[in-house]
Design a protein that fits this description.
This protein is of the alpha+beta class and 213 residues long. Helices cover 32% and strands 22% of the residues. A hairpin with a 2-residue loop joins strand 4 and strand 5. The radius of gyration is 17 Å and the shape is globular. The termini are far apart.
Length: 213
Amino acid sequence: MDIQLSLTLYDYSLGDSFPDIELACMETVQRAFHFLQQQPMFNWHKSHNFCEARAEAASLLLAAAGIYHAKCWVFGAAFLRKGYVGGLKNNWNYHVSVAVPTVNVNELAWMVLDPAMADEPQALYEWASNITDYPHSYHFVKDPQLYIFPAGSVVHDKWHKRHPRNFRWAMQGLAGVNALTPTGRAQLAFCKRRIDAVTRQFVQVRNIFNIEV
């Protein structure tokens, strides 16, 4: 008898707790998803996408609209050194997006807003499974103000918190520049106008992003 392996597992050791969750209705979740989907600055069609920059920008938009949310992360098991196998699609080591909590069949459900991977909001497990190329992957939910983990091992408490520096990283990422790499740092001087244009566009969008909760 074949045993069906789960593609993805929830990692409680890396996830955060959320004692004061504010639930949104599905209409709010859908409207937020479609607003993000329609913003060209996110370049959702690009697979190598600086997802942490997209997630941070989306998080800032949701925060401006007063929508409670978190960031959902998924990692290949091999990248977390939890086995020799376990990877994600597009040869990603990890992927991150924002998620809004709601109620589905009388249970809490984190609905992930990730137009790069789907045409509608997805429940957390479904989202993580669809990104997983071969088992296992590990997914979890983190505080939205955590931008990314530092280089090296991924542990629960050591993450870069939201900071003006992270905002610059996010705008640079939306402009296609990863300033955390030597190549990206070298690109900064040549891409300054593009980064400035993306930053202005983002600020304008944030000022008009208003969804009833």
